[in-house]
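As the next step, I wrote out a protein sequence along with its fold in token form, included below for the reader:
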Amino acid sequence: MKRDGKLSGVLHMLLHLAETREPATSETLARAMNTNPVVVRRLMAGLRKAGFVASAKGHGGGWVLSCPLSDMTLGDVHAALGAPPFLAAGLRDEQSTCLVEQAVNTALGSAYAEAEALLVARLHGVKLSVLAEDFHHRMQARGLSPKDFHHDV
């Protein structure tokens, strides 16, 4: 079963944007994320609508953060992506007339909804600035400084 990596990928792009001084083009972000620039533009559109990024066209244009990482949570970014479901598991037949399947659906549906709600609540408690701090600690632990960061994004 293929996992949806949109949230992870967008978080990666946002952290890269926080480390760069210049706008990053969709093409540059796409190369860094091993995807297509159209995919990057689609993902970033929701972030722009939420006020997290801005873009400029033309020479010297590209994507930039439009608010500090401390103003964004993982849950906010998830919501900006359209709040895709986290759980790949689902019900076999949601409209079943079978009473056994209805009982199964009630139990599983309730458990799935509770798990999603808990995860979303936890994500809203984590600011992106915490991820950036973790990244900086990891760089320091390896004896690297921000100037050693590869600004290919």
